[in-house]
Structures are given as structure tokens and as C-alpha cells.
Amino acid sequence: MAKLSLSDLHAIRDREEKNLKKRDIHGRTVHVVVAMGTSGIDAGAKLTLNTLADDVEKLGLDNVIITQTGSAAPNPEPVVEVYTPKTGLVVYGSVDKEAAHRIAEEHLKGGKILEDLRIELKDKEQ
Amino acid sequence: MGFKNYILVCGGTGCESSRSDQIYHALIDEAAAQGVADQVQVIKTGCFGFCEQGPIVKILPEDSFYVQVKPEDAKELIAEHVIKGREVTRLLYNKAPHKAFEEVEDIQFYQKQMRIVLRNCGSIDPENIDEYIAAGGYKALEKVLFDMTPDDVINELKTAGLRGRGGAGFPTWMKWNFTKQENNPVKYVVCNADEGDPGAYMDRSTLEGDPHSVLEAMTICGHTVGAHQGFIYIRAEYPLAIHRLEVAMKQAREYGLLGKDILGSGFDYDIEIRLGAGAFVCGEETALLQSIEGHRGMPKPRPPFPASKGLWGKPTVINNVETWANVAQIINNGGQWFASIGTPDSHGTKVFALTGKICNSGLVEVPMGTTLREIVYDIGGGIAHGKKFKAVQTGGPSGGVITEENLDTPIDFGGLQKIGSMMGSGGMIVMDEDDCIVDVAKFYLNFTVDESCGMCAPCRIGGKSLCNILEKITQGKGEENDIKQIEQIAHAMKIGSLCALGQTAPNPVLSTLHYFPEEYKAHIVDKKCPSGKCKKLISYEINPSKCIGCTACSRKCPVGAISGEVKKPHKINGNVCIKCGVCKDTCKFSAIEIH
Hints:
The complex is a heterodimer. By secondary structure, chain A is of the alpha+beta class. In chain A, 38% of the residues lie in helices and 17% in strands.
């Protein structure tokens, strides 16, 4: 009697493939950056980041890469930048949990820019 | 909630020797101490290949490539990169953070490479079978056990045109087919992991970074030729590779991917490790089989070939590690795919261990047909310290040198043979203007003399005689007749030795003689060593017009051979001087010259 049947092997592969895929960044075209400076975290950027990460996983968007960056003050934080080849670079301000859900669902998945959340990025030095 | 960052730490022997294991543990400890253990996964992988810059740590998803990392850097990497999302610029290879939204810029070292054999090295954890399975592992075995006949497998290898990566380049499908056709209930499969060429470490890295790829291929072969037992012959001085193999075999057995009734197919197969004591001749297949049987490692006349009468007289398939590592990919992607890579003469890729006087030493895998120039200059980054390129030694002690004029020769089995070298297992040692070609030939000859098993007189006596002649030449006692003698002895060794060790041992001498006759002549006739390496043929002298009398050299000289008054040109006493070169390295005014 075999220890592992063919379907057991497939089950292992399916389960582990998902985990390994998360480490594969090649061919990911959608890039999300969350500003995680002290002021950003204070404004709730951690919740924003977690929400985005969870949603991306839930929606199975395997072309999305989420990274963090430093402070985005003096803009209305939490600030999230989204880049897709179609929409180009879009910056969102005051991204709370609710807004994060919308970004994931409508922009990352749907490819639609959320004009009501959009801000113009102000540079620190100016 | 999944992990947000993945930290890949190189766990190859090279990086482990510069404390990558400590880095791995420090990162795990720091992640826990800073409260982000649930956000980051630290993975120890196989060799990244970029050994020059090790230890290497790569953090995903940013694809930040950190080099020369120390265990003390773990705290900063976790605090800055993982928690704050800021790259630690000082440790990055190109010292500049990635610009957001730009394509991840490839490091030039990797641009011309193509990874088939090393596909999983540096991306999966070699001690976790699940990761290998996730990366498509054991798919080929599945296909072979359930969807292909043994003849299909052989045909696929034939279409692929895979040739043995151990050096000689014998078509793999033929070896398998010979053994398959033998009518014998007991057959064996052997992996030759007795990597012995100076400077070569691709087999070690493959086993360390992706041991399952070899186990899977050997199992496929077992099923194809009708064998139920495999052996991996590996030298005991590769402890990490042995450990990873043992872990991999244990996990494969637990999953029943080795053992009885594999995947319910009814096929039984298992693999054992046999340790070698590190004799170079045991890389020769018949000597290797002798050693596995417990005898002294000495070659046997062929035929009979191992394919019909090998281990314990049974039909045996024996392939090199790198050859095995190609098999599963060929089954998965098809022979056509493999045949489309490389040159008409040699398909697929080849892994080279790039070492010597090169900027980026490391492990590189390129499609066959890549030129040496691309490997040395584009991947290797050129010669270190701005020196001039002299030659590349390929094929280890059996190969020869390749000079500037042949840098644009596409590298494949035939191409290298045509210019007097050979593929060998893939060691590539780059030499610059400071290397003396006679000295290099002497080094390789000394190696083969040490490693000769002593059975055949031409190899045993001829090798030693060649060595003596070269020694004489580098001592300044060379005679015009020496070159002729070298050629005669070399010829006798080539036709009179039983195995490849003796047959190819004169190659380094013949090849250097062919490409650098003037350098031999300088040693023999002019009693000079142009690169200043042979101590008996050089003298250090101080150029009085350049020496300002700073006394720096005389204070550094270990034997007190330099004298002179302050602010006046100094002198070296040639009778006392031991030619260590410390004065030359010390002098800031280039006043010390070699004559």
C-alpha cells in the first residue's frame, strides 16, 4: 500500500503552490505602496495595509505586489499609492479600512479609479 | 493573514562559511523580538550563485538584494525593511533603493543567465520537500510512472539531446537505453557526485540547493531501465550537501516517493549514499564503481561498459549530478523545448563555477553557445583590480587554456574541443597578467600526479617526469630539448594510459605550450619569468630615479635585505632577498621593479 496516493500528492502541491506563488514577484504588474511612517501608522496605516493584504489574498489577485514606504506627511494619511499599467499612478488619501476594501475591490480588481478618494501628493520639502 | 515579507537567506557552503547560518537565526530571533514573527517568513535556500558578494539575503516582495550581510545586520533589516518598509541602502548590491513602480532592475550578473539546473537554487528551502513539490517537483515522476512507457522516456531524452555534464558529453539516452536493453533482474542507478576539479563546485551547490531534483531524476531512471536501487557517490568533504541529501531522502521516504509502491504505481525504488574519501580518480566511472563496492578506487578497462557490466557486475546507469538535474525538466517541458536551447552540437545549459581573477566569482548557468567573453566580461564583470586578461582555464586538470583570440568561441562540447580545451565538469579559472603560464601548467600537473592511482606506468612515471621538467624550467635550468621531451612524454601518456585521468593529464601543458610558446621560451632561453611569478627567475630592484628614500620598504622587509639612508635611494641585497614582494606592495612610488 502506497504511503502517498496520486491525489495526496496533488493536494500537497495545490496547497503549497499558493504559498510559494506569493514569493514569486515576476510578472506582477500592479504595485501598491502604503506609507508606513510614524504618522502614517498613527493614522491607522497598519490596518489599511492588513486590509489590503487580506483582500488581495481573498480576491486572488496574484498580479499585485504590496510594499511599504516611509512617511507621506503632510498629506491626509494613511496614504496609499496604486500603480497599474492601465490607470498609471494614482494616489489615495485618508484610506481607512472601508476605503481599503473599496480600493481592493474596485481599483485593484476592477481597474477603476476612485475619484472621491484621490489626492494630489504634496511634497514634504515644499 | 499571510506573511508580508519573505526573507531568503543563502544557505550554500560559501555563504555558510561567512556565517549565513547565524544570519538566518538572528533574523528569526529579531523578527520575534520586534514582534513581527507572524509577518515575515525566513527561509534558508540554496546557492544564489553570486558568491563573490555573499552572504546574500534577499527580501521579497521588494526584491531587495542585500549583499555581504553580517549577523549584526539582522536587527536593522527587521526594524527598517520589514517594519518601516525602508530598504537598508548600505547593504544593497547597487546601494540605491528601488524606485517605486519601476520594473525590478536585474543585476547584470544574472542578465545573461538561464537557470534550468539551478532553477530552484536560491528560491526554495532545500530541506522542505513541500516547497520542491510546490515548485513543480515530482510532476515528472508522476508522468513517467503513469503516462509514459520507458521507451517514451528514452525517446524524450533522445529528442532533447541531453549529453553528460560530467565532462565527456556522452548522450544520456544511449546510456539509459543500453542498460534498459540488458536482460538482468538486478540493475543499478548511480549518481556521480565526486566533484574534484580544482575550483569547481556546481555539483555541490546543486545538491545543496535542490537535492530532490537529483532524487526524482534517479527514480525516473530506475523506472525506465528497470532498476530498484540507486547510489549517490559523494565525497565526504561535502558535509552540507550530504546533510541536505539525507534530509531530502528521509522526507521522500516519509511521503513514499522513495520506497515501496511509489505513488501506488507498484514500483519500488530506493537510494543510498556512499561516501568517497576524496580521490580525484574516483570521479572516473569505473573507479567510482570499484569504490562503491568497497575496493580501492582504480579504473578498469572498458568495455565492458558500466551500462552492461557495472556495479557488482550488474547493468548500471551512471550520470553526473548536473545531468540528473536536467532530467525532470526535460520530462516536464518536453525534449523539443530542451533541444531549442543552446547550439546544434550541445543542447540546454551549462553551469560554470567562475573563479580566479574575476570581479564576480560565482556560479553561473548559461545556455550552451554563450561565448566566453560574455561569461567573463558581462556576467563576471571583467578582471579584478583593472588587470589585463590573460587566459581562462576550463575543464580542470584535463582541460586547457583559452586565450584572448578565442574569447568569442561559442562554448559547447565541440567548440571547446576544437580550441584544445574541454567542457569538463565546468570549472572556469580566470587568469590575469600576473599569472605565469608555466606555473599554472605545473600546478595542474602536480595535481594529477598526486591523484594518479598509479596503475599505468605512462601516467605514473610520465606525469612525474613532466612535473620534473616543468620544475626545472621554473627554476631557470630549462634546456632547449625540454619542449621536445614534454611533447614525447605527453604523447606516450595519451596513448598508453587506461583512463581519462592519464590520457588528459598532459592537456594543461600541451595547451599552454600551444598558446604561449614565447613564455616557455622566455623561461628556458632567456631565464626570465615575464609575469614575475617564478622566484628563481626574478630579482627585485629599486629604481633610484623613483625612490625618494622614505624607508617604508626597509622597515617592512622581513629579512632586512633593504638598506639605504633616509631621503636617499635605497638598495636591495639580492643575496638576502627572499622575493616575497612585500616591498613592492609597500612602495607608494612604484620604485620597486621586478627584473
